[in-house]
Amino acid sequence: MSAARPLTTLRALAVTAALPLLLTACGYGSDAKDDAPRAEVAADAEKLSTDEVRIGYFPNLTHATALVGREQGFFQKELGGTEAKYATFNAGPSEIEALNSKSIDIGWIGPSPAINGYTKSGGKNLRIIGGSASGGVKLVVNPEKIKSVKDVKGKKIATPQLGNTQDVAFLNWIAEQGWTVDAQSGKGDVSVVRTDNKVTPDAYKSGSVDGAWVPEPTASKLVSEGAKVLLDESDLWPDKKFVITNIIVRQDFLKEHPDVVEAVLRGAVKSNEWINANPDQAKAAANEALKQESGKALPAEVIDPAWKSIAFLNDPLAATLDTQAAHAVKAGLLEQPDLKGIYDLTLLNKVLKAEGEATVDDAGLGAE
Length: 368
Prior knowledge:
Largest sheet: 7 strands, mixed
Helix content: 25-40%
Strand order of the largest sheet: 1-3-2-4-11-5-12
Number of strands: 12
Shape: globular
Mean pLDDT: 88
Oligomer: single chain
Number of helices: 13
């Protein structure tokens, strides 16, 4: 993939409402579901600069840093007497709305809603303060109809939402094959069928789509129904890494309570360290969290391959966010937004230095 050029202004297209819906339908549980904290605050623990911090995330595997950090108590341990409270969301827009209304302070979220939330506020509301996950997106197909890349031409392929991150990635891949598709209608050399991830497995079983470019665990659900992985999106990126989940914060909360933000980031870094050192235990902890929050754990044939395809890391992979936005511009779904200032990695790098880990870069998109 070519390097992205700097991005400057956002056009108010109809599709921008759809752009932020990264992973809209692959979450589990209800939007804005408020939950009591599982890790109890010790009575004698010292509070930080506020009594509580409200943390939002999606109950799905690409948000496993938050799932595991909560389930294992990493966040509460770092916060001491400041209470961690949680809310889960299925869709990026509802989480951004909660951030804007100050219903949450910090959130785990995908790149498209982060871009849209930042640009819609004129760069005045959120900041990306850390990374969380990479990968976990695949092109899975009906092996009876599609045996190679060239066979995708003329077929019906599902993506989660018009203009969402996977939709943009698929449109970009189609263009790289030399094929033509109208981004708005999805019609062309390939039929791009925008389908909610919750119903994509049924659409596949009925034959109304021949495959799907989707995030986990939807991809592995389709494989359990007989689909085959034709392409892992990670193979298209340098070092096989691209951002799928970021950590964001309200700018006013960051300014007023940097000690609390730093504590949450320490919890995130320690969660990722534990996940990577204990993959089987971490997978079980994430699945237990999913079960508690949605009433339904993922079966082994779905969670095992899905988990293997996701990398948990602290680096927000800022250059890939820039590239993803550039792909949306190329597809005609977005005019070039000004992303300068979307990152503030100061506290993350402080935490990483203290842990003896390498610091990370904002690709020139950091706050002054």
